[in-house]
Design goal:
single chain; PmbA/TldD fold; 37% strand; 2 domains; alpha+beta
Length: 466
């Protein structure tokens, strides 16, 4: 099987080679294009192509069904049969799979299953690159240095099973990250955007935004650790709520291991988490945030099962009007917990009902004292799963707001907060907009969030980071 062999042919041949009781084959065809720049000049650009094949074999036994999973890249004709046999051997050597379920059946085939994979190329930057050059010129004239990168990828995923499923999904994913620095490198500001095609991002507009922030940073104030009225921009809200959803497996909650566990047993489903009418949802068909409408699982875990490959993914409200409505379940964990089937999510949207822009929210900050405006969060790590207490750092600009105006930059902080607690204490939500989570952008990018006003965000210590 050469690189030019169509992915669906790879899938069909692997299924033909299988001697297991059940088989799932996933072919991921990935192409990427990227630009990188430093000091107001392009440094590198490139395109890549790749293929990864995952074979999941299931073997029935007296004690239950076992599964074996093997993934390899750059699979050739000579590699294909050994790959299938390796998956079968892994299944036969494994004990019964706890999450075993019958493989999915009855889903109509994707009409483009036999088509060639979608591909990106440097052409995706046709309009973006000249605008980036203009941003370089403006930054140079304004005494700023721009650093960053633009990356676009297209992944065509083909899923075939021994029960007849033939499904395909094309996922475009683009990220733009831009840093502006003063020539002495003492001031830094960041902005990022997520995009499907680079037609809706304007580097000159981002540069103008960063110029304002570098201007704010010309005045410097030192603040101690403490609790401050804080505006979390959409990117920071996204980072926190992505982690919250990664910690929202129903089984873990039922077994008393997470913040969503109810004291004395059960889960907190139905409990009000926020006094604001916040709705946290996922929808594979959300405009501009489209994601796979069926489960693609390369491995099993708390919130995914290889046996669920091909299972339809519906639109789901995780928090509805401020109340916890759903936790993530596989077919196995739904049956185990008695909770509704709620497959994992490919995008995340928080609707808060607000209409104010971040700038308008700034105008309402600091009238009773000092308020802070964050740029983004960084190095987020879990401290306590029982409360979902997280710690991390602020980065690339924390700004002091007094009487509705930004008056300068302050030092960075380490924070200690739980996103669940933050939702309960939030007093205002702004306008929901597409955003790029900075911390998790290598893993998850399809988000739309509002800014949130937190009256007492816990800046636990001062950080010396820029």
């Amino acid at each position: 099987m050469s690189v030019r062999t169509k992915p669906h042919e790879i899938v069909e041949r692997a299924l033909e080679l299988s001697t297991a009781d059940g088989c799932v084959v996933i072919a991921d065809e990935e192409s990427t294009a990227n630009l990188r720049w430093a000091g107001n000049a392009l440094t590198t650009n490139g395109v890549t192509r790749g293929r990864t094949l995952t074979v999941i074999a299931t073997v029935d036994g007296k004690e239950g069904t076992a599964s074996g999973v093997v993934s390899r890249s750059a699979v050739t004709a000579a590699d294909l049969e050994p790959l299938v046999r390796a998956a079968e051997a892994a299944a036969r050597n494994a004990g019964p799979a706890e999450d075993a379920q019958p493989l999915i059946t009855g889903t109509p085939a994707s009409p483009d299953f036999t088509d060639a994979p979608a591909e990106t190329s440097s052409a995706v930057f046709t309009d973006f690159a000249p605008a980036l050059g203009e941003a370089f010129a403006r930054a140079r004239a304004g005494g700023r240095e721009l650093y960053g990168f633009a990356n676009h990828e297209l992944v065509s995923t083909y899923v075939g099973t021994s029960t007849g499923l033939r499904l395909r999904h094309d996922q475009p994913n683009g990220t733009l990250e831009l840093n502006a620095k003063s020539p002495d490198r003492q001031r830094s500001a960041w902005a990022g955007r997520a995009t499907r095609d680079f037609k809706d991002v304007d580097p000159t507009a981002l540069d103008a935004e960063l110029a304002v922030r570098l201007g704010w940073a010309e005045r410097r104030f030192d603040l101690p650790a403490g609790r401050y009225e804080t505006l979390l921009p959409p990117t920071a809200v996204a980072d926190l709520l992505i982690y919250q959803m990664w910690s929202a497996a129903a089984r873990d909650a039922v077994e008393g291991r997470t913040v969503f566990s109810k004291p004395g047993g059960g889960t907190r489903i139905g409990e009000r988490l926020s006094q604001l009418p916040l709705t946290l949802r996922s929808d594979p068909n959300a405009a501009g945030l489209e994601s796979a409408p069926f489960v693609i699982a390369h491995s099993s875990g708390d919130d995914a099962s290889v046996f669920d490959n091909g299972l339809p993914v519906p639109a789901t409200e995780w928090i509805s009007g401020g109340e916890l409505a759903r936790l993530t379940t596989t077919r196995h964990s739904a049956g185990l917990t008695g909770l509704p089937l709620s497959p994992g999510f490919g995008n995340l949207i928080l609707d808060g009902g607000g209409e104010k822009s971040l700038e308008e929210m700034v105008a309402g900050t600091g009238h009773q004292g000092r308020g802070l405006l964050l740029t983004c969060l960084w190095y987020i790590r879990e401290v306590d799963p029982a409360t979902l207490l997280l710690t991390g750092l602020t980065r690339d600009g924390v700004y002091l707001v007094e009487n509705g105006e930004v008056i300068g930059e302050v030092n960075n902080f380490r924070f200690n907060e739980s996103p669940v607690d933050l939702l309960s204490r939030a007093t205002e939500a702004g306008r929901t907009e597409k955003t790029l989570p900075r911390e998790w952008s290598d893993w998850f990018t399809r988000t739309a969030m509002p800014a949130l006003r937190i009256p007492d965000f816990n800046m636990s210590s001062v950080s010396k980071g820029v």
